[in-house]
Structures are given as structure tokens and as C-alpha cells.
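Work package 3, deliverable 3.1, input record:
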Amino acid sequence: MNTNLANPDTADEQALVDRFLSKNRAFLGPDPEIQRNHHVAPRTSREEEILSAGIDSNLYAEIRSGLRASLDETFKIAEMTVASPAAQCADMSTGYFTASGDLSLASTRGVAGFTVSLHYPIRFIRKYFETDETVGINEGDGFLLNDAHYGGIHSPDQHLFMPIFHDGVIVSWCVCAMHEGEIGARVPGGMGPMIESPWDEGLRGSPIKMVENYALKTDLVTFMQNSCREPQTMLADLKARLAACCRMERRGKEHIARYGVDSVVGFLRSNVEFMRDEGRRRIAELPDGTVRTQFYIDDTMREPALMKIMYCFTVKGDKVIVDLRGSSPELFNRPINSLLSTQVLGVAITLAHHIWPDMPCAQAIIDCFEFITDPGTIADCSNEVPVALCIQPMFKIMTAAELAFAKLYFGAPVKYGKTKAGWFNQPAAIIYGGVTQHQDSCGNMCGDLNGMAGGAKCDEDGEHSIAPCFGANVDIGESEEAEEQLPFIYAISKRIWPGNCGFGKFRGGAAYEYGLMRYGEQPFGFQTFTGGSYFPSTFGLFGGYACPTYGTVRVRGKNLFKVMKETPELFQASMASIMNDRLIEGAEYSSHSMAVAFELYPEGELFMTSQGGGGGYGDVLDRDPNLVIKDLEEGLIREETAMDLYGVVYDPDTYAIDDTATVERRKGILKGRLAKGVSWDEFMATRVKPEPPATVPFFGSWNNSEELYCGPFGKALPSALPPIILPDPKDVEIQQLKAKLASLEAPRN
Amino acid sequence: MKVLATEYLRVDLEEEMWECDRCDHVLGPARENYKRFLLIHDRNPREVHHPLLDPERYRFCFSPDPEVCVIYEFYCPHCGLMMDVEYTVPGHAPLHDLELDIDSLKEKWCGATGVENDSTANTAAFRS
Ligand SMILES: [Zn+2]
């Protein structure tokens, strides 16, 4: 019962003032004390009492198995009932948390990265809402979150939190987290190049109590549905998450009934502490050292740029310092910035997926990591800039951590996984939006985002388009299912093209190209938001090469269904053939970067792109010639690559290797290296320049400069960065064309 | 005792020197940046990553743009083995990517007792 039913309008003045001062805050924005702390919370007095009395590891193992089964069960419930295409491809996770909000256990399948960063909102809810009489936390409540400033990866994700009570006290939290996609942003799917301010990002859902008494509140659901392009998907997925949470809560209570509340609370906490302590122990075991990696994000999503992002991992005793200083300043009106919490999350996922695959995925495993940044840079941006594409810098820190620990572990006495090169690290998915053949409004992304290729390993090649860098157990979806629901066909589906992998002693996995052809008359279009069109995004290891660069290509101005019907021989399901042969008369062929703004496509127009390959491992001349020929036969590399780069001599008709000639050619290549390579001193004197090239705007430090380059805004110390507001590229082009026109119109003397 | 620091780079812990694991050439002091002792070649990325689409016709041809990207290749000065490649912006200094704490490395391998572990056993285990 609400005990405070008095209308404040009738209260006496002093009481009104007192109440105002004690209850009102101007704005419950993201709390830096919460958002900038990724460490495990201290034990509560209850946890201390339980754990100091001693623990029964066999009992805890039994509880762990039971709760894990519940997470996998609820994962399946949600997966089978969701409507969001990403979540249907398993871009989701379920988890149990301690009462303070630390993730203790996540579902085996899916993307544990979602649950990894959800201690922030639980702490926020407890700190600000528990004692707020207009909100409160009660049994059967569910809080919805999507704003990344309060936790989670990025705003297109939506998460539902439900407390688990025992005797009126919160003893745990359960969460169903997933990539929802459509959140009513300026562009379909919640991510895209045209997002230029936080106010273009759509729903800014700080934690909202959307569920009371285990039921969704119709007024809030209606508001949510009105605020996005996919009202039906929104409702279906809210229900799916609620069903999962209700079952998780029930299973949690069953465990409490069976094992006693202290055992469950003790288990949840001790599991967190185990992960924290084991992470620290593994770091202490490593030799001390520093590994540096620098990446260039080559596109602001509206224009080419070189945004440096600098990662320096130092192991010192039982600590890791992650230094991100020197990275590009934040861009005020481009979606490429990331919050510090996003960077931290990227490290946790990488450690769990790639370095310590035997460890559970939780933030606790990197409790011994500390982060140093320049606030106001793309690795630790302010709350005033858009972060819709924060996964760009996040995927970079994932590869940086992958390569750093590959190097730090190579010379270490104990390892926990295979050494391998970088996993492809870009969100190479086509985002679509418009009206479907079923007359539904929609805006979401293709499951092809998950088709990233794996990096080469120290003893074998990487796998082709196997899984995203952020989750091992997800899917890319079926083309046919997408075609049934959406007004396009996969005119090219999952075709490997030569050269799309990092070369080396072992090559990275290759990745596929795909092309969507619009079908039907309704308004419908595409966009992409991927980097790596000018500068490769994913690196190899120990002499292995990077993946290549990518683009988007289009065939427009012609209904290709008509061409297919009348002259089927003119249509080849290959991007290279279509674009290089240009057999379709009257069609417009064009290539673009991997970041293109949303555009509508009429029926029969074709939009093509490619997923990315993994980095290579080791010197190309160390590759077994038989494997090089196998690559040729499988269409993974070109003839020039086999002959000139790998130095293999073979009969071009039979592919029979000439072993002697191959040995000779490789010796020749080694000699050539000795002839063309120059010494360090000569290189520094002749190749290294004091300033970055002027051809493309450069952002970040240059050769360890203290000042950060700010593109067209000069350079400045990190503490005094100017606001970087870039002009609309269309305006720039208009100005250029106007100037050109004026010069042509000028009277000639 | 000698420890592999990368696929091709070895540290002699007694002498504190970097060595090439292929030809045994002694490169230089292990407390310094190993790249200082290698030959460096700045390579046009188009030589490695051939364009998929006709570069005369298309700006985005699925091959790195040499205006913004260069590959630094690092070779053993004795045998020519390619120990590392670095993709960077033309004119940028090579990155000091790996800086091992030699004292800590000695301690982890030889311990306080000075008893040597087998440096290759663990790596070999993960290669089988
Ligand atoms: Zn050598």
C-alpha cells in the first residue's frame, strides 16, 4: 500500500520545501561512480557471514549445475519466442547476478558479452530506485534497459532485469539480455552513419520498471511500441524476455527451497570471487611485459579519416594496466565514439573467449585490470557525443587484447589456449528498413553480421566465416528465412572470394560475399556501418598478414529480375564478375566504402558486400606448398598470391608442385628481402615523417606525440581538446561544386 | 637457458640477447626493442592484397589504399625470415610492440631455485 496519498498541493509550505529538497534531484543521469568502476563489489555483510563460516564446494558445484541448466533452459525459451532477427541468431544471453549486481553465471550459448556489463544498471537501480517511493523494488518487478550510458554494449540491445526475493530481501537478480535492433533511432536498426547526435539514437531507456507483478505494463509497452519501427517485434521480445525472467526467478526460488537461501547466496558470491581470484592468479603467473597495438579506424562513417586507437597492455605482478592514451579525440557529430565501459567490456569478452577459454565469461575475470585513458577520446568519450557505433572501437580493443595476450603468453611457462592471430573485427552486416511484403514496418540487421572468420592459429588455418569475435555460440541465420520475411532475395549467398583472408604460414579463415536484391514495390532500403575500406581492420601475428579491405558495391537503375528472366546468362552470382564484366547494359555500377547512409532501393536493384577474413600467422614462406595449392583449388587465393607471395612453383594446368623450383624461388625471395630491407637507423632517417600525411584527416597521437591531432582542427593536448564538429560531406561537396561552377562561369579575359 | 618470445624470436636469458630462432643469428640486447636489429622494408599493400575489383574503375576495390596504408615488413638480417609485419600509416615510426621484462622472464622460467623449466614443452603441447 502506498502510505503517502496526500496531494502535495494541500501540504503546508515548510513541509513542501523540506520534501522537495530531500526528494528531488535535477536529473538521475549516468553515475560515474558506477559507470567507471568495473570491479567486483565488496562482500555484503550477509555474504561475509555465509562465506566466512566455510563453504561446501560439492554443494556449490551442484547448485552451479542446477542454475546453469536453468540459464540454458531460459535461453532456449527466449530464443524460440523472440522476433528480433539478431536474437533469433542467438545474439542474447541469460544470467544470474549477486544481490549487488555482479554476474555470477551466464548461459552457455549466445553472447555472454551482454550480461558481462550489466552490473552497472543493477547497481544504479539499487542505489537510486530502491528507496525511491515512486519506484521501489518489489517481487515480480522487471526493469528494462537499453541506454548504453547505464550499462550494456550499445543501445540497440534491450535487457530485462528481475530481482529474486527471499523473505522480503533481494538475494539475487536474473537478466535476459539481447540485441533487439530497432529502437526508433534516426535510421533503422538503431545504428548507422547518419546518427550525428545522442538525440538521433532513438530510445534512451535508462532502467525503467516495465513489469509489475510479473506482468508488462500496457501503458509503457504502448509507449515503447510507438517509439520504434517494429511495434510487433518490440512486444514479442518484451514478452520473450519476461517469460525467460519469470522462469529464471522460479528456478532460483526452487534452488533456494531445495538448498537453503544461504547456500544459493553463498554460491553466487563465491563463484564471482573464484573468477576474480583465478583471473588475478593467471596474471601473476605471466612474465611481466608490455605489448602495444595501434589500430586506425578509417572512416567516421560519413567521410574517410584516420582515427588512431592506441592500446598498451602492461602486465606487472598480479595487475594489468591497459593504457589507451594517444587515441583519437571524440567526434562531436559522428557515431564512432565509445564509452570506457564499452572498452572494459571488450577486454572481458576477449579474455573469456580467446585467451582463457576454460574460464566463465564475466567481468570478474578482469578485476585485476586497470584502465588509463584520456577522457574525451573515442576510447573514453563524454556523454554529449553519439555512441551508436561504439562497437567499432570496442571490436578494436578486442583484437588488441587478443594480440597482446597472444604475445604475452607465447614466452610464458603456462598457457590456457592456442596462440592465434586476430579474429575479424568489424560489424559487416547490411542493415535494412522499410515496409515488408507482409505490410509490416521494419528496421533491423542481417544475421550475416555473425559470419566473421577466425584468425590463423599457431598450428592450423583459421576457420571460414565461423562466428563473431564476441561470441562463439551464435548463428548467421538462414537466407531462405530472411527472404520469407523481408522484401529481398540473397542473389549472392555465402560465396568465398580469392584473397579474403590473412596470408601466412597458417592463413586466417576466409569470409563470404553476399548480395541482396530488392524484391517488391514497397519502400525498402539498405545501409552499412563498417570500417576497414581503406585500411585493414584486423591484423595477423608474428609475420602473418592482415585481412584485406572491403567495400559495398551496387548495381542500380535496372530491374535485374527482368534481366535474370530474359537473359539469365548475363547474371553471375559473383561480385567480381558482375562488377568487372559489366554485362548488363544500362545498369549503373558503383563502389563505396563499408559505411554508407540509408537509401531506398527499387525492385531489382542489387546491394553487395562481404564479410571479413581472419589474420594470418607466421611467415608466408613457411607455408607448406601443398596447403598453398589447396588454397588455390578452393578459390581462397589467386594465382599471383601462390606464385609471388608464397613462392610456390607449380604447373598451372595440373597444379603439380615443382619442389626444387619452389625451394629455389623461396631462396630468391629471402635474398630479395635482404637486398631491399634497410637498417633501423636508415629507416628512421628516410621513411619516418614528423607529421601525419595531409591527404586524409588524422586524429590521435603521431609517433607518441603528447598532443593529439584533431583532423581539420589542428592539434591539442588531451586536456584541452577542441570540440570536433565535422561539416556534412554533402555540404562540402556542394561548396566544391559551387566553386567549380563559379570558376567555369567567370568571364575569361 | 633460451626461451621463445615469438614464433621466430628467441631470448637467451643468460646472455640477455635476442636471437633468430631459424638461423641462430644473435640480433642484439634483449632489453632493447628487437625491431632495431632487423631489416625493415616498407611495402605497398597492393602487392600483398591484390584488388578484387578493377582499381582503374573503382575506388573501393577490396585492397588497401596505399595513400593511407603501408606494410612494414621486418626481416632477420641474416636469413631473411619475416619476423613481423606492421600495418601503419605512411611516415609513422615502427611500433615498439613487444617489451618483455627480462628479469621477470628469468624468474618465471628459472624461479628462485634456478631450476629450468622446459621452454618448448608447453608450446608443443598446444600445437598437437
Ligand atoms: Zn635468421
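Residues 231-259 of chain A form the longest helix (29 residues).
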